[in-house]
Amino acid sequence: MASSLYVTTTEAHTGKSLVCLGMLEMILRKTERVGIFRPLISGNSGQQDKNIHLLLEHFQLKQSYEESYGYHRREARELILEGKYDQVLDRVIEKFKALEQKYDFVLCEGSDFTDENATLDFNINVDFAKNLGCPVLLLARGDQSSSIEDILSPVQITYDSFVENECEVVSVIINRTQPDLAHELLLSLRNRISKKETVLGVIPGNATLQSPTLGEIKNHLQAQVLYGGEQLDRQAYRYSVAATQLQHYLPYLTDQCLVITPGDRADIILSVLQAHQSKNYPDIAGILLTTKFTPEESISRVLDGITDIVPILSVEENTYNTVAQIGKITSSITPENETKILLSKRLFEKYIDTTVLQEKVSNVQQRGMTPRMFQYNLVKRAKSEKKHIVLPEGDDERVLRAAEILLEQNIVNLTILGNVEAIKNNIGKLGLRIDTEHVSIIDPAKTPQAEKFAERFVELRQHKGANLDMARDTVVDVSYFGTMMVLEGLADGMVSGAAHTTQHTIRPALQLIKTKPNVSLVSSVFFMALPDRVLVYGDCAINPNPNAEELAEIAISSAQTSEAFGIEPKIAMLSYSSGASGQGEDVDRVRQATEIVKERMTDLKIEGPIQYDAAVDKEVGIKKIPGSEVAGYATVLIFPDLNTGNNTYKAVQRETGAVAIGPILQGLRKPVNDLSRGCTVTDIVNTVVITAIQAQNITE
């Protein structure tokens, strides 16, 4: 039987998404085979449940949407009113048991509470948890009252009801708590629920999670977008009605507020936009125009000429009705909102004892090095000895978004290169939570350090004809400046390539940092995180047609990288034939490279030439190369050339859904890593984490 957990609430809007994201992140570190299930979902049959969609998409769970729920709420309610509750329960149990057969862990999310069906929802959740045999995580909200008694009373009643119905409550969490009340509330909760087996936690409220985006506001109000349609992911932390004269209104502007004003108040529209652009006023989220008026032509001409204008929305309702409607908006977390997702996971990890909770959720299977485990272990390891990484491409939005994540999670220290004012402006426009007072932003062309770097460059490259004038021009290039920072110990590693070619990234490192002793070749690997294991692919990015000596060096470097990241190296030297069966120049080159590795590194487990299927499939490996320690068990796969390696890693990534982390450069004395120009924010984060770990392994 699969392990499971039933997440249920005391009332509506408790923030279940945060807890479910945190729980699945925790469970996926232990097992890859995870499913989700909701007995009842809201909405009509033509609409997808938001919570199911979020979890399926974000975690890429291997189940269909139809498998993920029992009934639509309306359908179930009609059956219950007809006296067919047993039919509802039987179908819910049947669908849940089907998931139990497929997965090692199933997370059940209880029904949403509504005012008209609150009692029904409560009773059904108790009955479902009991009949499904799931331990319970009880979730409450702490923002409805400043009285601890008022908050805890419904929690106690709900907890007792589950216990009385023979449900095992493994955790009680109070979410969205007023921050100044959190500690006292947790102490009182411990006094109320003293059972040692129950994990208790209090999570403070967070403005980012609870604030709707401009897109959500637009959809709820059915508003028209006049300007800034590309920035509807901005969040409104507060609503501010502007109806007074400017000198009285402007002092009340707050960071990321949505300004609500009648559409004919051109003076407010223009002054608010000017205040937004001023360093002396906070950034606003946008402007909402009411009473169906829109700016007249002369004002529109002004607005049309403003670049990067914040969203301006328009509704036909008057200001009073609009404010009443906007107060009913409940923000949700969508798969596209990476900021909210990562913040939810971080808050859950910070305020809930996940180690103890993991133990309480019984029978979770340990399944080897899954992708989730691998990535979690990487982040944990990077945090254990925090390193300083330089990002030369501060003008790239993806780099800034990745920097926000890295800094928020306290994984590394960062230096960002580029025009200082432009970077700070972009951080503000994107609404990123990067404290520019506490992160190093350097413009290579405007720092005195450039002159010192130029002098050092001449020392290192004068044998190639370098002079001071040439060096001054060279070191202000962001790739060279970042490389010099690494060389001189001002940073531990560099990650670049989101907006530059591989050559632009690697050439400075080859010229200045150079390769490790006894290493003549810089090569690369990808960590390929498959559903049940992590493999190392090399070289898929750097060397087009390596000879036997170079192929052997790639294999040795890849084995060392593999071992450094906790993967036992079992090297497969890939070719189109296995063992002694094949002949020809290409297979002979692989055979020769294998012998070179065996001579140089007698303790390494290596097999070659070997075909891919024989390397990774036990049955095929036994048939083709019986008695081999590597065949069927390979963890490090060395491709004979770049064409084969690059195409194979991309094919595996696309067809299997594997996470490809890399390319990771190896062979340099200090770590510099290259990004694909098509990289995602997640790719940048992963590469920085890898670079930080490489820096931890550097011994001068």
Structure overview:
There is one protein chain. Mean pLDDT is 87; it is low at 363-368. With 700 residues, the chain is α/β, with parallel strands linked by helices. It has a seven-stranded parallel β-sheet, with helices on both faces. The chain has a six-stranded mixed β-sheet with strand order 20-19-21-18-17-22, sandwiched between helices. It starts with a strand and ends with a helix. It contains 28 helices and 23 strands.
Helix content estimate = 40-55%
Give me the CATH superfamily of the largest domain. Answer: P-loop containing nucleotide triphosphate hydrolases
**Rg from C-alpha positions?**
29 Å
What would you call the structural class? alpha/beta
Low-confidence stretches: 363-368
The count of β-strands is 23
Contiguous helical run count: 28
Count of all domains: 4
